[in-house]
Specification:
The structure holds two protein chains of two kinds. Chain A folds into two domains: 2-219, Rossmann fold (3-Layer(aba) Sandwich), CATH 3.40.50.620; 234-262. The model of chain A has no long low-confidence stretch (mean pLDDT 96). Chain A has six helices and 13 strands. By secondary structure, chain A is an alpha/beta fold. Chain B folds into two domains: 5-174, HUPs (Rossmann fold), CATH 3.40.50; 200-320, 3-Layer(aba) Sandwich (Rossmann fold), CATH 3.40.50.1220. Chain B has nine helices and 18 strands. In chain B, α2 links the parallel β4 (38-44) and β5. The chains are: A alpha/beta, B alpha/beta. At the A-B interface, α3, α4, β7, β8 and β9 of A face α3, α4, β7, β9 and β10 of B. β12 (222-228) of chain A pairs antiparallel with β10 (142-148) of chain B, so a sheet runs across the interface.
Chain lengths: 262, 321
């Protein structure tokens, strides 16, 4: 089973995100960068499938030079090799253009199964994996919290509002991960040492045969006009009473009579 | 030139989901703003009655795709049929819910149609015929205003945010023959939780518990029951194994926008605040008066949740009789 995992480097979810002076991007200097948490689940699942059934795990990422750190992290967890689409021309690509680049890289790879996070926790677009599947002409199942791979097919538990839907499809296919799928392993020290020697192939937009006029910040279909901080709330109103029962009564009075939500 | 607005609705087991009415109502507002027609689209199997229900929200036309292969949502069948509908009508704007279905569908449809997507929008603004979409990013730490080049523009609206407006008018219903095409995905089984459990992303009221519960959710569940609310949890509570992953609110869980969010024993880590800050009213209950959650709350009570939550439950019961 040859598996390709799509990985993105994103700001740590514990980071405070601040808007840059241009008003349309974020300040990147003080941010700690991590592998997208949903992609960690994807790497872990790929490794578990490989450990059970044999095969290879390839990490594919599109991003600036430092995105190599996320690829190395996945290699340290146990993946075999990496492909890094790294080209100034591709920087600032929107989800559709990113998917085009990833799909172009996938065309040249032996691949039975693609696994990706269901979204990246930076722009929260929920789009790249689905578009990659469309460009490859393979089926997708998203937000999966349980999967079985056997005899040329996958059976996935897809999370939906109020439950899960069990779905099945033939390989090759793509699925995206949801929390609950597994507990990603930490990279071990020997793993980290080994990862340094594992091959990472760097590709440019031209290498992939993708038209430079269809990718990058200048060719976004979705343009960010402005970034804002969420509106500040008014200062909290503290309910000051002695006994719990009095506090509860006061709260209910406000919720019922003033705000009218109960 | 592309014109008209499509609102893609969704049904499960032959019942329209609430986000469908939000999509059609928002579609009506956008179509009126653009001076164009609104088409509501519904796919399913044996769904004749659903078009009647959608009429209330004011579409000019309803397209019904009725086929046994469309009974349950699958990416491939739904994308094939919707792409056909869209290509023959050439709408300028397509509105869908940013639900499990819409999030799965939008990316696929966008790639098929070479269209831009504004995902999880909380507001659609129209200025001189140009649409701007407001959407949270970084789990709600930042709010972006985006525009989409070309057409169609695909807009997935966050459930529970857009208002539902009844606005019945004359409306034609069309039932074109559908080609579901090559369907590679098979639905084996739907495993739904009990019908009375309220889904977090669709709940009007959420009562959420964090580390302060110590894993004891009895009081929180009792309050949620009394309010008809959903139960949520912080990441640390989920990591402790106290609640299932599906209950997690935050940047790596669900983003919620209820009318009332009651945070009990949640200190307010940045990634949790990101996921609930668009709630209309926030009540925080915490032992620690310095807890960051109070900076995002409208109403705060300092105290022991095991005393306060049951007292609030008692008051709710008194009020509701």
């Amino acid at each position: 089973m040859d598996i390709v995992v799509l990985v993105k480097q994103v700001p740590d979810t514990e980071s405070l995100v601040q808007i840059a002076d241009d008003g349309v991007s974020i300040k990147t200097q003080d941010i700690k960068w991590i592998m997208n948490p949903y992609d960690e689940l994807a790497v872990e699942e790929a490794l578990q499938i490989k450990e059970a059934q044999g095969g290879t795990v390839t990490i594919l990422s599109c991003g600036p030079e430092k995105a190599i750190e996320a690829i190395r992290t996945a290699l340290a967890m146990g993946a075999d090799q990496g492909i890094h689409i790294c080209d100034p021309v591709a920087e600032g690509s929107d989800p559709l253009a990113t998917a085009k680049l990833l799909a172009a890289a996938l065309k040249d790879l032996a691949c039975d199964l693609v696994i990706a996070g269901h979204r990246a926790v930076d722009e929260d677009n929920y789009q790249v994996a689905a578009a990659v599947a469309e460009f490859m002409g393979i089926p997708q199942i998203s937000m999966v919290n349980k999967v079985e791979v056997s005899e040329g097919k996958i059976t996935c538990h897809r999370t939906v509002e109020g439950g899960t839907v069990v779905m099945e499809t033939a390989l090759p296919a793509l699925f995206t991960t949801q929390r609950g799928l597994n507990e990603p392993r930490y990279a071990s020290l020997p793993g980290i040492m080994k990862a340094k020697k594992k091959p990472v192939d760097v590709k440019t937009v031209a290498d992939l045969g993708v038209d430079a006029g269809s990718v990058g910040a200048a060719n976004r279909k979705v343009r960010i006009k402005a970034l804002n901080l969420p509106p500040e709330r008014q200062a909290v109103r503290m309910i000051e009473a002695e006994a719990a029962a009095d506090k509860a009564a006061e709260l209910l009075k406000i919720l019922h009579e003033e705000i009218k939500v109960i | 030139m592309a014109q008209g607005v499509f609102a893609i609705t969704e049904q499960r087991d032959g019942e329209l989901r609430k986000v469908s009415f939000e999509a059609v109502s928002e579609g009506r507002r956008v179509a009126d703003g653009l001076g164009t027609e609104l088409t509501a689209v519904v796919l399913g199997s044996g769904i004749d009655g659903l078009a009647e229900e959608l009429k209330k929200y004011g579409p000019d036309k309803i397209l019904v795709g009725d086929d046994p292969a469309l009974a349950d949502y699958t990416t491939d069948a739904y994308t094939n049929v919707l792409a056909d509908f869209i290509q023959s009508s050439d709408p300028a704007v397509i509105i869908t819910g940013a639900s499990a279905q819409g999030k799965d569908l939008a990316g696929r449809l966008a790639a098929r149609l070479d269209a831009g997507v504004a995902m999880d929008c909380v507001e659609v603004k129209l200025d001189n015929g140009d649409l701007t979409y407001t959407r949270p990013m970084f789990g709600g730490k930042i709010v972006a205003n985006v525009e989409i080049e070309g057409s169609p523009q695909i807009v997935a609206i966050r459930p529970n945010v857009m208002s539902i407006t009844e606005n019945p008018k004359e409306c034609s219903i069309e039932k074109p023959t559908v080609q579901v095409g090559d369907v590679k995905i098979k639905v084996i089984e739907m495993k739904m939780e009990t019908a009375d459990k309220v889904e977090l992303t669709e709940a009007d009221i959420i009562v959420s518990g964090g580390r302060g519960t110590g894993g004891d959710y009895a009081a929180i569940e009792a309050l949620a029951d009394a309010l008809g609310a959903a139960v949520g949890a912080s990441r640390s509570a989920v990591d402790e194994g106290w609640r299932p992953h599906s209950d997690q609110v935050g940047q790596t869980g669900k983003t919620v926008s209820p009318t009332l969010y009651v945070a009990c024993g949640i200190s307010g880590a940045i990634q949790h605040l990101a996921g609930m800050s668009t709630s209309k009213n926030i009540v925080a209950i915490n032992k620690d008066e310095e807890a960051p959650i109070f900076s995002k709350a409208d109403l705060g009570i300092v105290g022991d949740l095991f005393e306060l939550v049951p007292a609030i439950t008692a008051e709710v019961k008194k009020l509701k009789g």
